[in-house]
Amino acid sequence: MDKHINPALKNEYVYLVRTMRSSALGYDVPLPPENLNWQFFLELAKYNNCICLVYNAVSALPEQYLPPVDILNSFKELNGTCIVQDVNQQYELKAIFKDFENEGVYFLPMKGTVMKDEYPNSCFRHMSDADILFKVEQLPKVKAIMERHGVDFDYFDDDNQYHFEKKPFLFIEMHSSLLNHTDKNREYFLQIWNKSVLKEGCKYQFTMQAEDFYIYQLEHASNHYRKGGIGVRILLDLHLFVKNHTDMNWAYLNRQLEITGLKKFSEELNKISQKWFDNCDFEVLSPLEEFIFLSSTLGRDEYYYAVLSLEHRREQQKEHKKPSRLKFFLSSVFPSKDKMKRQFSYLEKFPFLLPASWIQMWGRRVFIDKNIRFKSGLKSRINYITDEDERYIETMMNCVGLDKK
């Protein structure tokens, strides 16, 4: 498992952050370093889902500093697709929100749906799906409105998310709660309706107070951090939100961060954000900074499978059994009841349905999500964790104050 970026490509990672910083925060467009590997730089921008942010800066470079024509054309084409996706998403969501409001559906937009408004241009903040909190008793009304807009109900994830889609660009997750039933901060975030306020001029659309939105963003980031890591864009989201909301009540915020166990996580991410986006300091990179550089927007597969492998090893040792690659492979294909309960809550009452949950999980991945990568998935499942990997995972958790779930 990679633990350090390639020193020969450090300039490309740094220039990615500097171009994102330029577009999001209004700094002058930086000139590229000499001999920049433009192909790798393009792949980094795709890996981090920040094409529009980066292209906005790169396209403004003096002609002699522009990337090669083929790279620039690739950037331009990808940027065009991102803009079309953004325009489509904004148009469809505006119409759906209008009907929610007119027909008395209580709803609260979350995550990227809100963060888009924090950027100078909504297309700068890529959004794969729109997340919306709603009251589950209003599901029939929600389904009827979605159907009128040509948005099909896809599936319920058996915990707290109802998935809708209108291909090719609109994917909506309607959440009955902010966290699922296994998350330790679930009860804390169940209070969010009481803490939120009506959006100005609305009767049914709610919005979180800035402090609570920031806490939830950190909670969401911490969950991804534990499972696979977080990338540059999450740091930029958090940094930009703080910059845009200078009147946040930090006394209240710090108390809530202590309650939720996110204070150190917040502090460490803020240190890096200030170092990168305020001071543009990349001279010496900490292990945490390299960890973020190596992660895509919401983590990387090899780290995710290393975490699963570590969980397997500890479960086996706890039961005084010897861990093995074969056992790990089988446990990753057919997870334990405790793991499956995180996704399929019916197993709490009906544990004998565990085999059915495996069929449901793989059926969804193969036929609905269509996110199976057989070659890389097989490779990841047979690459067993080493002692060095275990120490690395522990270090990455401890340095931000998170426990391994």
Can you describe this structure?
This protein is α+β, with helices and mostly antiparallel strands and 405 residues long. Helix content is 56%, strand content 7%. It is built from 19 helices and seven strands. The strands form two sheets. The chain has a five-stranded mixed sheet with strand order 1-2-5-4-3. Strands 6-7 form a two-stranded antiparallel sheet. A hairpin with a 4-residue loop joins strand 3 and strand 4. The longest helix is centred in the N-terminal third of the chain and has 34 residues. It is globular. The two termini are 20 Å apart. The model has no long low-confidence stretch (mean pLDDT 93).
Essential attributes:
56% helix, 405 residues, alpha+beta
Strand content: 5-15%
Gross morphology: globular
Count of DSSP H/I helices: 19
Low-pLDDT runs: none
Described by strand count, sense and barrel closure, the largest sheet is: 5 strands, mixed
Question: What order do the helices and strands follow?
Answer: HHHHEHEHEEEHHEEHHHHHHHHHHH
Overall mean pLDDT: 93
Order of strands across the main sheet = 1-2-5-4-3
User: Can you give the helix content as a percent range?
Assistant: 55-70%
N-to-C CA distance: 20 Å
Would you report the number of β strands? 7
Structural class computed from helices and strand pairing: alpha+beta
Any idea what the radius of gyration is?
Answer: 22 Å
